Amino acid sequence: MPRSHVTLAETTASPDGATLNALLRRYESTLIGELLSCEPLTQGLLNRGYHLTTTRGRFFLKHHLDGDRTALARQHRVTRRLGARGLPVAPPIADVDGATVSVLDGRCYALHPWVEGRHRDGAELSRAQSWRLGALLGLVHTCLEEVIDPRTPAPRDASHAPDVTGADPDHTFALIDQLLALARSRRSRDAFDELAEHRLLERRALLERHAHRRPEASTVPATGWVHGDFHPLNLLYRDAEPAAIVDWDRLGVQPRAEEAVRAAAIFFVRPCGTLELSKVRPYARAYRCAIGAGQDELAAAVHRVWWERLNDFWMLRWHYQLGDHRADPQFPAAAALAVWWTREYDAVREAFVA
User: Fold this and answer.
1) Is 56 exposed, middle or buried (0-12, 13-18, 19+ CB in 10 A)?
2) φ, ψ for residue 197, nearest 5 deg
3) What is the pLDDT of residues 112-145, one digit of tens each?
4) Mean pLDDT over residues 329-347, rounded?
5) pTM given for the model
6) Sequence-distant (≥ 6) Cβ neighbours of residue 207 within 8 angstroms
7) Fold assignment, 8-114
8) Beta-bridge partner residues of 89
9) In this structure, what DSSP letter does residue 155 have?
10) N or C, which terminus of the chain has less Cβ within 10 Å?
11) Average pLDDT for residues 63-79, to the nearest whole number?
12) Domain boundaries, given as residue ranges, for the chain
């Protein structure tokens, strides 16, 4: 679930030519060259990205909207160290002063080499490739522990102790009532409003039946440094192999196995809202082998992420409370998944621990 919201208007405006030229002048001219074109990239929900073509080649320019230079510098150091260990990453390019974060008019930018590749979801992956995906995420987690000094403080939004009891269903019931009122009050109701009302009523009934299954506070999950947003849009493939893991903005300390479960729920979800468990199994087995995680750790993570999904309505909050419809296409499958996962809970759990 996104931790912060970026409005649609904030994601569409491109930097002007003067800004881009001033930015590129900070880099070695023989490396970067002169600007020829700048094309905004449309994929992704947070931050802004641009494809730059110069006389020296192609580059990816990222405008970080949060502007936390300390966090950005940490991310850049980490990705350079991961790259040195052979992980597929695309660390930023340093300017003539050795800095990887450029600030112009209060805005933070980072320039990266362009990585040729494409995104692939779980439907395009074979079982062997699903295994390699799980192994890759496990390698990311183990390498992060090795390259980050244990004394390094986690980002402010990721340094808190895990909420071991999960979402409060009473708060969820109140949110459901708010969203139902908004969906029903639309003057010209459409198919999205009808589906939203159906799923909200359905989810309320599920929560009423399963409120007693809220995760208990008896066991604190194993935490560690994680990518924070591992999903198909943040992994580029070249042919059959991963070429680059991108977008490390959510690098932080979180329950590590939960990232593995959340990633699987995005990579392997079908349009109808079911998980392709035949691919989840090799993915999860490879992840467990890579980090040495036991079945209990994965089983607890499955339960916590299931509960999280059952109480999660960020897409509807964007739609109705913020007037932002960018996540609308994801809603049908995501909403159906929460229902299917509840019905097939044992089968999902078995796929992650077998």
Assistant:
1) middle
2) -65, -45
3) 999 999 999 999 999 999 999 999 999 999 999 9
4) 97
5) 0.90
6) 169, 172, 173, 310, 311
7) Phosphorylase Kinase; domain 1 (3.30.200)
8) 245
9) P
10) N
11) 88
12) 8-114, 119-165+211-353
